[in-house]
From TrEMBL:
Cofactor: FAD
Name recorded for this polypeptide: Flavocytochrome c
Residue ranges of every copy of the FAD-dependent oxidoreductase 2 FAD-binding domain listed in the record: 23-449
Family affiliation: Belongs to the FAD-dependent oxidoreductase 2 family. FRD/SDH subfamily.
Record's keyword terms, sorted: FAD, Flavoprotein, Oxidoreductase
Annotated organism of origin: Mesosutterella porci
Pfam families membership: FAD_binding_2
Lineage: Bacteria, Pseudomonadati, Pseudomonadota, Betaproteobacteria, Burkholderiales
InterPro entries reported in the protein's UniProt record: FAD-dep_OxRdtase_2_FAD-bd, FAD-oxidoreductase_2, FAD/NAD-bd_sf, Flavocytochrome_c, Succ_DH/fumarate_Rdtase_cat_sf
Length: 468
């Protein structure tokens, strides 16, 4: 990946650090952290990014890569109505009206400009927008490169061009305050604790806690035992460190799940991403919900099925519509016996272990609904675009897996961390999945990367501007 080879170990950079210091420390190297670093450096600050993992990218690197934004070019070309108010209303309403309105407003109003900013850095998106699973409107931009690779390539290259120092294998274990102001961090390096000072600010972009089973059970005990699709380092320690220093937490009970690897299985296949291409069926071979429903409703409904299990089913036309990495996931799962491919629906049912007659009727009924533009489960007519009629047919497990923790550090619209009384903590900013209040109880599909970039950029700008 271009630029990544220029990431340093902290020990390699320590001498320079001690000599010249840094203005802004950014904790985390996903989309939020790198966006903050680029903006702060572009404003003239010396910036250092500290990444706990051996490589940069965080969850962004393995994400689906979709970016939700108002797009007057692509949407107009596809005859898709959209507006700031409609995007705001959907985000706020589907989030249970529990998000902070000013944060939702900032996300929505800055989505187009942030999309264009990314494209200006070299990020490439496909020419058409789609409605992503749980996205509820065709404003989701699909990257040309697989998953989140394009973001990390473009952002890390931009950061290095701006002189940002990126240090991997550098876990932050504490924050340093001076006269009530965030003034640095404590990092574990080579078995030693080192205190690193920041002249202006600290930006926390360390991700959520979706890989921390203990915290998941604490805040959402009904999800205990589920797998996660996050990287192992998404454990929330930096969030908890900030909380110990007085930063407020909010929305910690809101945890989003996506179809994925059930407990006891090892492969996740993302056949669910494009809602017009697949259907859900349960272990009885029958549909039980519309596939374009809210993600929290889909989660709870799948978990209420026998064995807390469902399957995603699609045909070969849908399979070929996915990118090479999703196809690779499917082939690997096929070889492991956790996905199935068959020349007929009857054969597919046999491999899945569901009643053949039920699955045959389910697919026939769905196809009739597509042709009549009227689905018995209420799937939107705009997503009733493709019948499942092109063999071979595919299916995979669609158990629920922990995907995104909507809760975290409370911030304001300038990405400043707030204390329990709602007061900004001087010098401390946060962006991305380490924060709460942006998405409410249910994050709209593709809004995760949008929020990361919008608030990462905000944090980077404000870290410099508010400390002049």
């Amino acid at each position: 990946m271009p630029g990544v080879s220029e990431a340093l170990s902290l020990s390699a950079y320590l001498g320079e650090w001690l000599q010249v210091g840094t203005d802004v420390i950014v904790v985390g190297s996903g989309a939020a952290g790198l966006s903050a670093a680029v903006e702060a450096a572009s404003a003239g600050a010396r910036v250092t990014v500290l990444e706990k993992a051996p490589e940069i990218g965080g969850n962004t690197l393995i994400s689906g890569g979709y970016f939700a934004a108002l797009d007057p070019v692509r949407q107009k070309r596809q005859h898709i109505f959209d507006s700031t108010e409609f995007f705001y209303r959907q985000t706020f309403e589907f989030g249970g009206r529990r998000a902070k309105p000013e944060l939702v407003r900032r996300l929505v109003e800055n989505s187009t400009e942030s999309l264009q900013w990314l494209e200006g850095l070299g990020m490439r998106f496909k020419p058409k927008v789609i409605e992503l699973y749980g996205g509820h409107w065709a404003r989701c931009h699909c990257p040309v490169l697989p998953l989140g690779q394009g973001y990390i390539r473009a952002l890390s290259a931009a950061a290095l061009r701006c002189g940002v120092k990126i240090c991997t294998g550098s876990p932050v274990v504490d924050l340093v305050f001076r006269d009530g102001r965030a003034a640095g961090v404590t990092v574990l390096e080579g078995g030693r604790m080192r205190t690193l000072r920041a002249r202006k600010a600290v930006v926390l972009a360390s991700g959520g806690f979706a890989a921390n089973a203990r915290l998941i059970e604490r805040y959402a005990p009904q999800l205990r035992g589920l797998t996660t699709d996050n990287i192992p380092s998404s454990t929330g320690e930096v969030m908890l460190v900030a909380h110990r220093h007085g930063a407020a937490l909010r929305d910690m009970q809101y945890i989003q799940c996506l179809p994925g690897c059930p407990p006891g299985k090892t492969h996740r296949v993302r056949f669910h991403s494009v809602v017009s291409r697949f259907i859900f069926v349960n272990t009885e071979g029958r549909r039980f919900i519309r596939e374009d429903g809210p993600r929290d409703v889909l989660r709870d409904t799948v978990l209420s099925q026998p064995h807390r299990l469902a399957f995603s089913v699609l045909d070969d036309a849908g399979f070929r519509d996915y990118g090479i990495l999703v196809q690779k996931e499917a082939v690997e799962a096929l070889e492991a016996g956790e996905a199935w491919k068959a020349g007929s629906v009857r054969e597919l049912a046999g491999k899945m272990g569901v009643p053949a007659a039920a699955l045959i009727e389910t697919i026939a009924q769905y196809n009739r609904g597509v042709r009549s533009r009227c689905d018995r489960w209420g799937k939107s007519p705009r997503e009733l675009r493709y019948t499942l009629s092109h063999p071979p047919f595919w299916a995979c497990y669609a158990g629920m897996t922990i995907h995104y923790t909507e809760g975290g550090l409370d911030i304001d619209e300038m990405a400043r961390c707030l204390d329990a009384k709602g007061r900004p903590i001087p010098g401390l900013f946060a962006a991305g999945a380490v924060t709460g209040g942006v998405h409410g109880s249910n994050r709209l599909g593709a809004n995760g990367l949008t929020g990361a970039v919008v608030f990462g950029r905000t944090a980077g700008k404000m870290a410099v501007r508010l400390n002049v």
